[in-house]
Design brief:
alpha/beta; Helicase, Ruva Protein, domain 3; Zinc Finger, Delta Prime, domain 3; 17 helices
Amino acid sequence: MTSTYFQLIKDFQKRSFASIYLFYGEEPYYIDELSDYLTEHVLNDIEKEFNQVVLYGRDSTAANVVNYSKQFPMIGEKQLVVLREGQDMDIKKEENLGLLLSYINHPQPSTILVICYKYKTPPAKLIKAVTASDKSILVESKRKYENEMPAWITTQVKSSGYSISDKAANMLVEFLGTNLEKINNELGKLYINHPKDKTISEDVIEKYIGISKDYNIFEFQRALAQKKILKANQIAHHFALNPGENPLFKTIPMLFSFFSKVLLIHSLPDKSESSILSKTKLTSFNKQDYIDAYRNYNARKVQDIIGWLRECNVRALGIENYSVDQGELLRELVFKILH
């Protein structure tokens, strides 16, 4: 059978467990969360000493996994066998895969087997077997798109009893990307220091995480999009003075992504707001920055900007550049974009 992260958590809380779980996909966060929940809650502390086995794909074989799974619990009613990093175990060979498939068809009733398979897709036969079995559960952990992240953060924060402003959520996305584990860790810091009855704002993000609400890539892109010359240069100057916090090698890729989407908007035959949001996967919060840039820079200019970003990146690597530091390169780039 197939299921979802949220449905499984509800099942776990009711102590409803299947015989076999296969967690796989590009996003490791949910895979780790589900397997960690099981290792923490299926058995009590005494039972864990005797009935809980954690294996790692690099050091295990299919035969090991099946042999452990077929054993009976020494005490209590259940034993838990967890295979972490299953993608490192060689199950492409037919004989190895066959062992797992045979066990899936006839699992040990007293065993809960958990297979974690990160970043890659398991063999099709394994997925098919788990899906077909009423004693097994399959969960695919898909990578989140950037435009999905603000809503994900808002939901995570709400589930923990807090609230967060749209701008604060977007600041986290701009600086931490789509790494769910990293974002969740930063949110944990906020929960420790922030009262539940007050909304997590951009000021809170600045205070406890260290992301400036005024001098960040989010505000930098907005200033460039709106052609606010003074503000764009102020932020560029701040970045130049604080290269450790705002490295050029982080700024350039984000600007490249920004203007690439602006160029995509220029190429759309249908430039209605709904079409732009659909094709570029923007959020309703940051769409205006892209629309402003689209209106202020024609397609040829955007192509030039993308070329200058590539050139700036090459020079920052020290190629055809022997004296200009990263701060000066950024100031020169801003001048070209705005003038």
